[in-house]
Amino acid sequence: MSEPPASIMMVDLPQGGLWQEGYTVHKGHTPESLNYATVAAADSGLIPSQNTLQDHWKRAIKLIRDAHIDITLLPYPEELLSLSPPDYDGIFIRDVGMFAGGKWVKARFSVPERQLEADVFARLIHETFQVDIIDLPPDAYLECGEIFFVDTPNGSYYFGGLGRSNKAGHNAMLDIIKPDHIFLLESKGFHLDTTCAPLIDASGHLVAFMYAPELFSVESKKHLSMLDVPLIELLPEDTCGIADNLGTMAVNGLSLPGIFINAEPFKTPGVEKKISSLGVTRSSSPLPYFHHAGGSYHCLTNEVRL
Fold this sequence. Notes:
Strand order of the largest sheet: 2-1-17
Strand content: 15-25%
CATH architecture: 5-stranded Propeller
Largest sheet: 3 strands, mixed
Radius of gyration: 18 Å
Order of helices and strands: EHHEHEEHEEEHEEEHEEEEEHEHHE
Mean pLDDT: 95
Number of domains: 1
Structural class: alpha/beta
CATH topology: L-arginine/glycine Amidinotransferase, Chain A
């Protein structure tokens, strides 16, 4: 078993900033895969204040580094910026792939407009970390905002979402990492990490799983009830929300041993105390303009497992 990762990678802001021409609306292969946050932002004609966005970004980087987490900052790819309109969703490095078995598994997007992100970052990660790239089979769709992989002293856990990914995509990843416990889940979130999150204590054990039951199918809730750690139920307000009733994305946090970093306090009564009682320290700094694109700390980070 590998040690819990203390190193992540992120994508640096491009010089001109992000979403200068507004937010792009994406949808995958299921009705639930529509990102309603971007719909709301596009409908309102929202253009971020670049000074405020950059300030929030700097504070987020400081928060992560203050938690003694090493960050490899990748440059924003020119190939994405040169598109018309530019592809700013490449800031969400979580989606484009995942380290597995000392290699990089490249995502295959069910949103075809975003596939270039996976291709470009695969080349950049190969050059940066000197790792081989694994391509998924043609019928396999896998966007890695749909994955939580927690490797603990008592076994490994894989949580996979079926919003913008399919079983073929998850099966391809499962064949590589061979986890001990597998949970494939159907939710109303476009990515699984907008609906739930694991909590890990300082010794690397999975100690709880936070989720909003209203966003999950009956079968998925039954499956999660078999998990061997406590389930912490959240209100939809702490997630992406349901349809156009948007939430705060508080659940979309970077979860590492003893740490949960997110952008908003939880609105569900008692959750903050439960997190603290499990030996997990929650810290936060706001990221509202990233929320409008449907992402937060989990989306903006990706564990380096070599």
